[in-house]
TrEMBL record, chain B:
Species, as recorded: uncultured Acetobacteraceae bacterium
Gene3D superfamilies in alphabetical order: Nitrile hydratase alpha /Thiocyanate hydrolase gamma
InterPro entries: CN_Hdrase_a/SCN_Hdrase_g_sf (IPR036648), CN_Hdrtase_a/SCN_Hdrlase_g (IPR004232)
Name this polypeptide is given: Nitrile hydratase, alpha chain
Record has Transferase as a keyword: no
Length: 124, 200, 97
């Protein structure tokens, strides 16, 4: 394994250590997909489509916890991460489309951050 | 596009299988059994689940809550299969399933994905211009219906529970199953009652 | 920090401009014998804990773009499975010549 393979998934981890077991985001939470491009830093395997990076969506619900595919892809020990169904309005994604249409995508928790950190801190 | 495999690819597969057999990793019997069980999965399973959900409110609730349990209730072995999520169409919302990253598909209840589902064009376009793709295939959605594209990116597999078409009142489970096409189970088509059909 | 390079990977096809004007062909042929054998082999190797579907995908995604676009679906699978079996030492390069 090259050093890049060994660090690519770690580089996409959020700061602050392993993900907590309880879902961080409740249904209805506004979340932003991290604008991160690990595929440009070296070999990696990620399940977050490029067209959602940096985009804001709404958590539909937590789907459960699953071993992190970014680790499974390299046969590394794969800690479980919470997987969410997140809803995005469709038109802004490609600057076309019909208002009211949307896109629903499974995204792992470590790819999500609060869309409005100030509001989240106030609520906490 | 289902271009045939190149002769050199077939030869490469034969060499890999020969090496795996020699090493005792796989046997021909295991491969044949695995292939037969994969071949036996059919979209009729998904269609029957939809038909039953149209007829039985309790089954419908189970299907929407836990697709895997609903498949097992039909006698399908879901051991080792990914969780199955079911997306309920409404008069105001149509779902279309795609996997933009590869080809995730609810194979346990639909069988092999068709070529178009795995095609670059479908993977690229479904999420960007779903209405255009559907219209090219003869499904023009009224403007009153919102389209929800479901990009199947991770550990779930997704199937659509379409709307039961008008004109199917009084139909049996078999009759209803017959109008739910494979394509309708991922939202690429709508179930249609045959013209002039009379309930049975 | 400078702006990241936002070029999507080849396999990450959602919205890809290059296929905007490509009709989606309604090909109804089931997978051929080659494809079905590759498919069964993939499942069997996963069942025997010799590879995961995630590793299969990683292997497919690492195929250079011109080949990724030229190979058929199950040819990409076979390429990835073969690379993984070599990487893991399950088979040797000599055996595949």
């Amino acid at each position: 394994m090259t050093p890049a393979e060994g660090t690519s998934a770690a580089a996409s981890d959020p700061p602050g250590g392993p993900a907590p077991a309880a879902p961080r985001f409740p249904p209805g939470a506004q979340v932003r997909v991290r604008d991160d491009w690990p595929e440009r830093r070296g070999p990696c395997h990620i399940r977050t489509p490029h067209y959602l990076r940096g985009r804001v969506g709404t958590v539909e619900r937590a789907l459960g916890r699953f071993p992190n595919p970014e680790d499974l892809a390299f046969a590394r020990p794969a800690p479980e991460r919470t997987l969410y169904h997140v809803l995005f309005p469709q038109p802004p994604l490609f600057e076309e489309g019909r208002r009211g249409d949307d896109v629903l995508v499974e995204i792992f928790e470590h790819w999500l951050e609060p869309a409005d950190p100030a509001a989240t801190e106030k609520a906490a | 596009m289902s271009a045939p495999a190149r002769p050199e690819s077939i030869a490469a597969l034969d060499r890999l299988l020969e090496a795996l057999r020699t090493r005792g990793v796989v046997t021909d019997e295991e491969l044949a059994a695995r292939q037969a069980s994969t071949d036996s999965a059919s979209p009729e399973t998904g269609a029957r689940m939809v038909a039953r959900a149209w007829l039985d409110p309790e089954y419908r609730a189970l299907l929407l809550r836990d697709g895997k349990a609903a498949a097992e209730a039909m006698g399908v072995s879901m051991a080792g299969a990914p969780p199955l999520g079911v997306l309920e169409d409404t008069p105001a919302r149509h779902h279309l399933v795609v996997c933009t990253l590869c080809s995730c598909y609810p194979r346990a209840v639909l069988g092999y994905p068709p070529h178009w589902y795995k095609s670059f064009a479908y993977r690229a376009r479904a999420v960007r211009e779903p209405r255009a793709v559907l219209a090219e295939w003869g499904t023009a959605l009224p403007d009153s219906v919102d389209v929800r594209v479901v990009d199947s990116t991770a550990d779930y597999r997704w199937m659509v529970l379409p709307l039961r078409p008008a004109g199917t009142e009084g139909w049996s489970e078999d009759q209803l199953t017959s109008i739910v096409s494979r394509d309708a189970l991922v939202g690429a088509a709508l179930p249609q009652a045959p013209q002039g059909a009379v309930g049975g | 920090m400078s702006e990241p390079d936002r070029t999507p990977a080849t396999h990450d096809m959602g919205g890809a401009q290059r296929f905007r004007c490509t009709p989606v062909e309604r090909d109804e042929e089931p997978p051929d014998e080659f494809g079905r054998r590759v498919d069964a082999l993939r499942q069997l190797l996963a069942q025997k804990k010799l590879m995961t579907v995630d590793e299969l995908r990683r292997g497919i995604e690492s195929i250079p773009e011109d080949e990724y676009l030229a190979l058929t679906y199950y040819e990409r699978w076979l390429r990835s499975i073969t690379t993984l079996m070599l990487e893991k030492g399950v088979v040797s390069p000599e055996e595949l010549r």
